[in-house]
């Protein structure tokens, strides 16, 4: 299993970023995929997840209404669009694969593979 994130960077408050995760080595459309983030000195937290095949998205309250998670089954790619970025969105963002097929997953403990992370910094 390999998960490779991209798309992070420096953005201004109110701006947007689109994060991507290229997945390989497993049956992509059989697993819930998620995004988590970890800011310095804080625990890793759930950001968003989408069930197998793109069935149902879930979002943390902190990003709900300004984020969209999606998958492209043809390209085995997971994407997270965050709009109206805030300084508190600054963190290392991780893509993750759920450990069990065809099961929803909202907790980090339900994921068994993680990418290396992509840094998002929101600052003026």
Describe how the helices and strands are arranged.
Blueprint: E1 2-6, E2 9-11, E3 17-24, E4 33-38, E5 45-50, E6 57-59, E7 67-72, E8 77-82, E9 91-98, E10 111-114, E11 118-122
Parallel strand pairs: 2-11
Antiparallel strand pairs: 1-3, 3-8, 4-5, 4-9, 5-6, 7-8, 9-10, 9-11
Can you describe what's shown?
There is one protein chain. The protein has 124 residues and is an all-beta fold. The chain is built from no helices and 11 strands. The strands form 2 sheets. Strands 2, 4, 5, 6, 9, 10 and 11 form a 7-stranded mixed beta sheet that branches. A 4-stranded antiparallel beta sheet has the order 1-3-8-7, with no helix packed on it. The mean pLDDT is 97.
What characterizes the major β-sheet? 7 strands, mixed
* Radius of gyration, CA atoms, in whole angstroms: 13 Å
Q: Helical stretch count?
A: 0
Which structural category do the helix and sheet elements fall into? mainly beta
Total strands: the figure is 11
Mean pLDDT metric:
97
- Unreliable sequence segments: none
SSE pattern, N- to C-terminal: EEEEEEEEEEE
Choose one word for the global shape.
globular
Strand content: over 45%
Ends apart, CA distance between termini: 37 Å
Helix content: under 10%
């Amino acid at each position: 299993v390999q998960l490779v994130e991209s798309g992070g960077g420096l953005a201004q408050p109110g701006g947007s970023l689109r994060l991507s995760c290229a997945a390989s080595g497993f049956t992509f459309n059989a697993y819930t995929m998620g995004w988590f983030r970890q800011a310095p000195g804080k625990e890793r937290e759930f950001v968003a997840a989408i069930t197998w095949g793109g069935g149902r998205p879930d979002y943390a309250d902190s990003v709900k209404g300004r984020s969209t998670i999606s998958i492209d089954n043809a390209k085995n790619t997971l994407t997270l669009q965050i709009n109206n970025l805030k300084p508190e969105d600054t963190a290392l963002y991780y893509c993750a694969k759920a450990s069990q097929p065809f099961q929803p997953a909202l907790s980090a403990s339900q994921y068994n593979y993680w990418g290396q992370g992509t840094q998002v910094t929101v600052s003026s």
